[in-house]
Amino acid sequence: MALGNWFQSTFRSQGYQRTNSNDPSSVSNAMPGAYEQDQTPTTPGATFRESMKKVSTFISVIIAKPLIILLLLIFRLLSTMINFVYFKDLNTSPLPNETIDPIDKVNKFVRDLEDNIQPSITQNLNQLPPFFQGSYTQALYMATQRGKILFVYLTNPQNESASFIFNDIIMNREFIRLFNQDIIIWGGDLKNPEAYQLANSLNVTKFPFLGVLCLTRITKMTPEGPRKEPAKISLIAKLQGGKINPLEDANSVIRDKFVKKIAKYEPELKLIRLELQDKYMTEVLRKQQEYNYMASMQQDMMKKNEKKKKQLAMEYLKYKAPLYKNVTHPPPKEETKNYARVVLKFPDSSRLTAYFPKHFKVEDIFTFVELVRENLSDSTSNLGESEATNKFEQFHMEYKFKLASPLPPRIDLSLKRDEEIQNIDLIYPNGLLLVEDV
């Protein structure tokens, strides 16, 4: 009985109920002038329905709604996984920084087109147009900087059923005859980042898409007279999706959509090409002049540096000359062991015997030979020791000759210029060196 009372108190209707005017408990709540209303008796069936309504509300809030939300999340997760596994290549937009060789992209695109050629078309010996072997950026450069007419053919792998443009236009001999040195075609599918971005920039809504781009310009009237605006790249014709008019044949479409448009813009394009060619030649000439000027400046600078370096070398030799003033005179007999007797044989077969203190370095022999070659052996310098030290601190004398032994193994002393003479058996206490020009 207590359980029944609890159930009834829990699910009993707590809403508004009509009361009888004779009920004392309702007198205080009656409005003045209100009519007397009959109280509707509460039946057991109504109470049960109210209870069931609350139970269903309880079940809906606590069980049903969370279950529905959980199922939605599961279905969303499954949908994402299926798209990722089965439609990854079709639904994923290309990455802007994807680094793939554009020529490989074009070659793959052409191979895919060749695989889709119907046997009936192949039997007629029809071939693909000469697609541009390069990126769209390069093809666009040819259109903007060389004044070429650029066809662009964009495809979507998800729209393989739209074959009219490919079978009846692209493979048409009349269409292929359009291409020459001034008319090129570039193609790509939406897997190619450049094709994807191009489709967005051209607001392409249907695939496949065949468009024509070229430089165009308009003439505006000014107070000074008619003036042509700078040329800019424009889309002058396009064909997208399937066949628009079933009554039109492919040759009519090619003639109306492309041949007439090309004929309309070709006269102005010829003028633009001449202007671009003149601009290009002017730019080449300017760069050549700049190159020649820079080369001349560099050559003059090298001559100045060489002259300055040679002048510094002369000052260095004059400063060093007094140090070797007496090397051609034999030392006293008691000092002979402290000297190296070196015979120098010059390229003209002349010989000169010099005596160098054993603590001198091999560099001193090179300096003495340079003094002899430049006829500066008797020269002098007005430079003081401190002044000379500062002036020649970063200077390194370069010699255009080498000193080598006459007999094998022929040792070149150019690599031993920092060693003392007494440590070189080739010249201490006696030696013969050949002076050879390099």
TrEMBL record:
<dbReference type="InterPro" id="IPR001012">
    <property type="entry name" value="UBX_dom"/>
</dbReference>
<dbReference type="InterPro" id="IPR050730">
    <property type="entry name" value="UBX_domain-protein"/>
</dbReference>
<keyword id="KW-0175">Coiled coil</keyword>
<dbReference type="Pfam" id="PF00789">
    <property type="entry name" value="UBX"/>
</dbReference>
<feature type="compositionally biased region" description="Polar residues">
    <location>
        <begin position="15"/>
        <end position="29"/>
    </location>
</feature>
<feature type="region of interest" description="Disordered">
    <location>
        <begin position="15"/>
        <end position="46"/>
    </location>
</feature>
<dbReference type="InterPro" id="IPR029071">
    <property type="entry name" value="Ubiquitin-like_domsf"/>
</dbReference>
<dbReference type="GO" id="GO:0043130">
    <property type="term" value="F:ubiquitin binding"/>
</dbReference>
<dbReference type="GO" id="GO:0036503">
    <property type="term" value="P:ERAD pathway"/>
</dbReference>
<dbReference type="InterPro" id="IPR006577">
    <property type="entry name" value="UAS"/>
</dbReference>
<dbReference type="InterPro" id="IPR036249">
    <property type="entry name" value="Thioredoxin-like_sf"/>
</dbReference>
<keyword id="KW-1133">Transmembrane helix</keyword>
<feature type="transmembrane region" description="Helical">
    <location>
        <begin position="58"/>
        <end position="78"/>
    </location>
</feature>
<dbReference type="GO" id="GO:0005783">
    <property type="term" value="C:endoplasmic reticulum"/>
</dbReference>
<protein>
    <submittedName>
        <fullName>UBX domain-containing protein</fullName>
    </submittedName>
</protein>
<keyword id="KW-0812">Transmembrane</keyword>
<feature type="domain" description="UBX">
    <location>
        <begin position="335"/>
        <end position="434"/>
    </location>
</feature>
<keyword id="KW-0472">Membrane</keyword>
